[in-house]
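Let's sit down with a protein and look at its sequence and fold side by side. Which protein we use is up to you, so please pick one and set it down. Label the sequence line and the structure token line clearly, so we can match residues to local backbone shapes. Go ahead whenever you are ready, and we will take it from there:

***
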Amino acid sequence: RALLILYFQRFLGWNDNLGTAIYHTFVALCYLTPILGALIADSWLGKFKTIVSLSIVYTIGQVVIAVSSINDLTDFNHDGTPNNISVHVALSMIGLVLIALGTGGIKPCVSAFGGDQFEGGQEKQRNRFFSIFYLAINAGSLLSTIITPMLRVQVCGIHSKQACYPLAFGVPAALMAVSLIVFVIGSGMYKKVQPQGNIMSKVARCIGFAIKNRISHRSKKFPKREHWLDWASEKYDERLISQIKMVTRVMFLYIPLPMFWALFDQQGSRWTLQATTMSGKIGIIEIQPDQMQTVNAILIVIMVPIVDAVVYPLIAKCGLNFTSLKKMTVGMFLASMAFVAAAIVQVDIDKTLPVFPKGNEVQIKVLNIGNNSMTVSFPGTTVTCDQMSQTNGFMTFNVDNLSINISSTGTPVTPVTHNFESGHRHTLLVWAPSNYQVVKDGLNQKPEKGRNGIRFVNAFGESFSVTMDGEVYNNVSGHNASEYLFFSSGVKSFTINSPEISQQCEKQFKTSYLEFGSAFTYVITRKSDGCPEPKIFEDISPNTVSMALQIPQYFLLTCGEVVFSITGLEFSYSQAPSNMKSVLQAGWLLTVAVGNIIVLIVAGAGQFSEQWAEYVLFAALLLVVCIIFAIMARFYTYVNPAEIEAQFDEDDKEDDLEKSNPYAKLDFVSQTQM
């Protein structure tokens, strides 16, 4: 997931909205499939065999998505672009479905299988296990979010060199295969609880019978029963009814929880996109937008031991009864505050963004690529550009009453005749009073994904081509500009190619240091010796708001996750009957799936003009849900399924004893009377 959204955008060429939608659909699918895994584990194969078989599916899915990202798979003409992108899309989708089936299927089984290793009376050790389990997951997540972007930026390919997505996807596939082998080797050490038949079928039939029986006995002449499930007692035993009651009480509590995950999983989509509009330079280090997610994993690794060993014991010493449901309520509140922090950062970012033309407006800047000073008059203003210089930024005008005139000392005025396109930026290239060229910039927003736009203007005279960092600007004609191409941060080398350039001339040059989200025009001029010389002009300034400002929102969200997610895992296990441990874990994971579906609905239904408004909406929604959950939790009664089941076992033994010796009870009563 660390590079999935960038893979969608940069390799498959999808836009932000489609990439975000598919990302959240995939995440939702990963958390819907646990129901299937839980059913297989609790009813048929058992947890161990389910983990092994679905891990194989998981590994195959990772291999398929690694193959889908091989550029040379359909690059038949070796131009660096796949000839049949639909093959890559199809393979990607197959790979993601297999991964969703594998990862989702094992999710409820792994945590429940770990919980099964503990005996009764080891609740403290089991809680510690769930914390270590969650810590282990996030240690892996931390390594992946650091290493996979590093693997991605490597260059690989047979015929053309590209960002190495096959390596970034292939390494986790290999590691998954190794981890599966390690898990299987330990088989003899595990305590394996045998599946107890098709329990979910029994549950469904019991609930169906209870509802049907209740409806058919709704008359007042039938006495009320304590719980609606008690209407199944005519057909089903008390033990099963009691177990279903435990599950339904917990499932009812789960109803508000998806809202937490709706916010939490946006750190991989919206928060990553927010990072692309920020500067990745933090002190002496520089980080890419997709690496900001490592903050969550780093903080998890730090915070889990602190919360488990310091915070909770301190709260207990203060005499506060900090129950599981209270912890989860606090977690939801902290996540809500994280999105308030994200909104504040977004407002800060919006202040630094350039203003682009809207509606009937056009924006124009003058770039003088000649050897004389030029005066250009616009409605209400006149600007003078010295040789090889540009106006200070773009000027905004109404397209309907736009008149432009160019003049120079001792020359007649030349009117600019051009059909300006409203809603766009334009550059007016001038090199003599009667010589000009209007170029539509094609940039109506900051360059996406934190990249930098570079274009070349030919003031050299003869047509030339430029090669920069694997990208080619073909045949840039005299006194004209190329299209923008986009590059990641760093210093880039470029080579100017033209038959008119002498062999003795320097043809290879370096850019200035490219930061994040900027755009530059490189004007190639001719020196007195006939050799080319580049001159740099800034079109859009680089991002100035540091990605470090995202750390507070990540900190709040991580603290919320620690007290919400680990507690939820432990609570789901502790409140589940022995034959439905995986099912209730799957129910917990189902809340994550619904959370991602909420993101799809809200982001799709409300196309917000301001991103901060979307963050505030999500924060407000979670705050309302948090209050509702706190009220529901107030009325929840904690149970000990092991004790309840032990009581049923005791009752069953007594019943069996009575059946085998019908006089046992009579003798017992007689002795008591005596």
